[in-house]
Amino acid sequence: LFGQPWLSPIYWTLFIELVFYILIALLFSAGALRRVAVLSLLSLALVAATALPVQLRIHGIANLPVQYLGMHLSFLFLGLLLRLWLVERAPGARIAALALVVAQVVAVPSVAAFSLARGDNFIMEGLTPVLTAYALAFVIFMAAVRFDRPRSLLLSRIGLISYSMYLFHWPVNITVYRVLPLTGQIGDIATMLICSGLVL
Q1: Acyltransferase domain spans which residues (predicted)?
Q2: Is the domain of 6 the same as that of 73?
Q3: In angstroms, rounded to a whole number, what is the distance separating the alpha carbons of residues 38 and 50?
Q4: pLDDT tens per residue, the chain (200 residues)?
């Protein structure tokens, strides 16, 4: 946010989540949490807040600071719009969700070359893997909602703890690696299993 690297590369997601919750609280207090038009405009503005500064820089119009906070937040708001469409059947939510998907699919390629050249890790391995992952995630999500599958208690329980595991794995791994450093050999599997067990 302030042009400085994160203290830990894995905890940036907590910041995104915190900003999202603050925005949700503000929308709720304004009575706009389920107003599709407001959510749609806000989501599209968040995408533009990432894409426009990059385009202005690329074309030499203005040297604005670039951050990806808006794009990350727009993905969280997509989840809210999808809920309003698929669960609550709110009028206009379908168009709003699909418009946001299109905006994201257009915006990500528009910033990809800039991100790769700068090495800022918004686009890490190239545009194709990012767009493929996005498309697969969207299709799998829509299929799961459409067919109401899978229904699995195990997957539900994993879902409840997966983000906590993601946040907690780093300090656990660092601690274990001090005692059992990775060697690149087959024995690393045991080390990884120990780390996984301790995180759980």
Answers
A1: 5-193
A2: yes
A3: 19
A4: 566 665 556 778 888 999 999 999 999 999 999 999 999 999 999 999 999 999 999 999 998 888 899 999 999 999 999 999 999 999 999 999 999 999 999 999 999 989 888 888 888 888 899 999 999 999 999 998 889 888 889 888 988 998 888 888 889 999 999 999 999 999 999 999 999 999 98
136/172 same-domain check: no
Q: Are both 7 and 51 inside the same structural domain?
A: yes
82 by Cβ neighbours in 10 Å (0-12 / 13-18 / 19+) ranks as buried
Q: Do 138 and 156 lie in a common domain?
A: no
Residues 74 and 158 in one domain: no
Q: Decide if 113 contacts 119 (C-beta within 8 A).
A: no
Asked if the peptide bond before residue 129 counts as cis, ω within 30 degrees of 0, the response is: no
- Residue by residue, what is the 3-state secondary structure of 38-93? HHHHHHHHHHHHHHHHHHHHHCCCCCCCCCCHHHHHHHHHHHHHHHHHHCCCCCCH
CA separation for the pair 4, 13 (Å, rounded): 15
Q: Which domain holds residue 185?
A: 151-200
Tell me the whole-structure pTM to 2 decimals.
0.81
